[in-house]
Amino acid sequence: MGSETILVVDDEPRLVRLVREILSAVGYEVLSARDGEEALEALAIEQPDLVLLDILLPGELDGYEICSKVREFSTVPIIMITAKTREVDMLHGFDVGADDYLPKPFSAKELIARVKAVLRRSKLPGKDAMLTADFECGNLIISFARHKVKVRGQEVRLTPTEFRLLQQLALNPNRVMLHEDLLSKVWGPEYRDDIDYLRAYVRHLRRKIEENPSEPRYIVTTPGVGYMLSCPEEAS
């Protein structure tokens, strides 16, 4: 650590100042933007390693719209800062490409932990890096090497975090993975108790790959235990 640059997008000077003090104290360089226009300009020019993005911002673009626009040209990790913690808000954030949520109010310890975890995930290739063969599970095809997914012949766009979640399930087909194991492997050990977080991500992933998300064929729930990628036995 020490060379990473964090862009904070928020119009509250006190919050920006607080975040700057916390992150600068542990070695990060902190930039700031007050609205969508400034944020997009800073992203293009400064190319930060991570973005802390508030949802409610002045001007024409809110955090969701900014995130969506950023995803058109960049895979930079984005953590949404928000007072909204309802599942529908989380799903909306995931839909436009957010990597994580940081609910207000937050502690210095929580902020640092989330930033470190997201930066770490963005740099690790994952244990699939040596896998070259495509993985087939019924009409679901996963290319580990190219980070591509097809369902019923159509390519499905997944965020890096969504792909890692599906990848972990695919590396263990027809085997139930515990909530804690999935959270630790995909997000990091700091997240192993955030089961509601995992549940929201799984629901969103199902919307992208399942023909009928309310009756999933691929990502199957074992209540109170975890999730399994259900495939024909020959696929495993």
Structure description:
This protein is α/β, with parallel strands linked by helices. The chain folds into two domains: 5-123, Rossmann fold (3-Layer(aba) Sandwich); 134-235, Arc Repressor Mutant, subunit A (Orthogonal Bundle). It is 39% helix and 21% strand. It contains eight helices and twelve strands. The strands form three sheets. A five-stranded parallel beta sheet has the order 2-1-3-4-5, sandwiched between helices. The chain has a four-stranded antiparallel beta sheet with strand order 6-7-8-9, covered by helices on one side. Helix 3 (63-70) links the parallel strand 3 and strand 4. Helix 2 packs parallel to helix 3 (63-70). The longest helix is centred in the middle third of the chain and has 16 residues, at 108-123. The radius of gyration is 18 Å and the shape is globular. Mean pLDDT is 87; it is low at 126-130.
In short, what is this structure?
With 236 residues, the protein is an alpha/beta fold. It is 39% helix and 21% strand. Strands 2-1-3-4-5 form a five-stranded parallel sheet, with helices on both faces.
Q: Name the assembly state.
A: single chain
The assigned structural class equals alpha/beta
Low-confidence stretches: 126-130
From N to C, what is the helix and strand string? EHEHEHEHEHEEEEHEHHEE
Using the coordinates above, name the CATH class of the largest domain.
Answer: Alpha Beta
- Rg on CA atoms, Å: 18 Å
Number of helices: 8
Intertermini distance? 39 Å
Architecture (CATH level 2) name of the largest domain: 3-Layer(aba) Sandwich
How would you characterize the largest beta sheet? 5 strands, parallel
Which strand order does the major sheet show? 2-1-3-4-5
Strand content: 15-25%
CATH homologous superfamily placement of the largest domain:
Response regulator
Backbone shape: globular
- What is the fold named in CATH at topology level of the largest domain? Rossmann fold
Q: What is the number of independent domains? A: 2
Instruction: Please report the total strand number as a whole number.
Output: 12
Mean pLDDT: 87
User: Level of helix content?
Assistant: 25-40%
